[in-house]
Every structure is written in C-alpha cells, then in structure tokens.
Write a structure and sequence with these properties.
alpha+beta, single chain, 4 helices, two-stranded antiparallel sheet
C-alpha cells in the first residue's frame, strides 16, 4: 500500500472526515475515493470473510502475549 503524507492545508480540509471523499483533478475526473479508517477496515474485514466485528478485531490487535512460533511448531510435531 502506498502512503501519502498530507500537508497542513489539505489535512485541515479533511479533518473530521466521517464519510467517503472523492478526490478529483481539475477536470472533475475521479482519481481516488478516500474512506475513514474505521469504515475502510469494516469493509476490508467483510470482504475477507472475517467472522468477527470491527470492535473484536481491534481488541484482538491490542492483545499481547501468546507463544513463540517455534513452540507452536514443536506442539504440532514439526
């Protein structure tokens, strides 16, 4: 995924973004659609067939701990 750093004037235009925004050139041709972060992830999880809610996804991302992969492989007999 590409990342674009916004300068202050553009960022101020997008502050409070809570719905999708269509970015167009001077001729009105659509260049991109921008979604709020949460809305993007909700759509992405649904498209991937993720069986949990966005909130559950966020909670699981925040969890720490677990086991080292090497231990898991040993448990599986590899």
């Amino acid at each position: 995924m590409n990342k674009v750093i916004l300068d202050e004037p553009l960022r101020s235009k997008l502050n409070g973004l809570n719905e999708k925004v269509e970015l167009c050139d001077e001729s009105g041709n659509t260049l991109a659609l921008v979604l709020p972060y949460e809305q993007y992830w909700r759509l992405q999880l649904a498209a991937d067939g993720y069986p949990y809610s966005y909130e559950e996804f966020q909670r699981s991302r925040a969890e720490t701990g677990g086991r080292p992969l090497e231990d898991i492989w040993k448990t599986l007999g590899r």
